[in-house]
């Protein structure tokens, strides 16, 4: 497989994960509702997700996307590194490209580690942990969320990681659209703006949730 | 003007090289960067030391032969020029200047600052042409070309193949070069006929030559003396996707 085919895979899996992010963010919005609706709606949503066969399929595709995105990036990075075995004595890359465009691997690694922590805290607890029940008798994932974000460091970690997500998306969405050959003299700027709005909106949206829970449910 | 230079010296392709310090004096501010190296070389030859080898030809910024890394920037930090069009007045008197050859495994060092860029020629040989002899310029109305297509094609065709895109890319990728070559033919009716095969063979050759992949950092376009736009990389990708999902003739 040539590097362009690998890049197409990166773009397609990346864009699918962007779609996942939107659904995930919208699904978590009940956290911002007033009590007790927040708890009931959020737990009802969690239960609905875990019993929906379509969601099971989507979660498998999401997992596969994360794996393919990660593995292909490793293959590409290896090739890219080996294309220049003697490095420059002096390099000033900051003058010609933004740092986050050159540090996608680092940002991606942060996100992968974040994902592990995130899955351990919520997915693992919900599946295998000791979780109470709410007034409607549903497993209380809401309680797990509120408990997790009582710790300052954990809340701060989330906000920092969402910063990494924002920069990863900022370059990722633009890069993916170019890899897929999207370009237009007139609509190009519009598409660029949409990518920036998406990156900022999604990362800010996800960063607001833990901060809100920390402040309002403390 | 006087400068302190740190220059990569390497006697041949298979010997180790190193940065060597030189001082050069009495350089007029109007001198081009290459002329400054000429001044230095005259003093070296007078001292019976080997002159510093560097590529150059037209010295008018149109041939694409010259090109070195100057203080970590391809063709220096002045935008839109080749090394021969960079003048010493762009530097301050007494500056220390680091001069290195293009670094990419696909561009092996021949001697000092000279690298072998024939990998780019081989990419063009793999399909960067039309195989039908198109003759002299046809009657203008016999092959209609929309003005915007002609302009885009000409923008791409302005690529002089200097290799600054490869030199500056963190992945040593040749995507902007290949994009310019594919794009300029893909936009014109004469090149359209073989567009599908061209993009396949040129990409295959690019991969074979050991260039890295494209990360879309756009450093190549920022450093290009001809300001080749990233839009051509998008078009190369689009042509490549089309060639992958459609069947051949």
Describe this structure in words.
The complex is a heterodimer of chains A (218) and B (249). Chain A is mainly α and 218 residues long. Chain A has 8 helices and no strands. Chain A has helices spanning 3-28, 37-51, 53-82, 99-102, 104-128, 141-148, 152-179, 188-216. In chain A, helix 1 (3-28) packs across helix 3 (53-82), helix 5 packs across helix 6 and helix 7 packs antiparallel against helix 8. Chain A is elongated and about 60 Å long. Chain B is of the alpha+beta class. Chain B folds into 2 domains: 3-110, Roll (Ubiquitin-like (UB roll)), CATH 3.10.20.30; 117-245, Fumarate Reductase Iron-sulfur Protein, Chain B, domain 2 (Orthogonal Bundle). Chain B is built from 9 helices and 7 strands, in the order E-E-H-E-E-E-E-E-H-H-H-H-H-H-H-H. Chain B has helices at residues 33-46, 118-125, 147-157, 164-168, 175-186, 189-192, 195-208, 219-223, 231-245; strands at residues 3-9, 18-24, 69-70, 73-74, 96-100, 109-111, 114-115. In chain B, helix 7 (195-208) packs across helix 9 (231-245). Chain B is elongated, with a radius of gyration of 20 Å. Chain B starts with a strand and ends with a helix. The chains are: A mainly alpha (218), B alpha+beta (249). The A-B interface holds A 2-8, 76, 79-93, 95-98, 101-102, 104, 171, 174-175, 177-183, 185, 188 and B 6, 8, 19, 69, 71-73, 77, 98, 100, 103-106, 148, 168, 170-173, 203-204, 207, 210-219, 222-223, 230-231, 233-235, 237-241, 244.
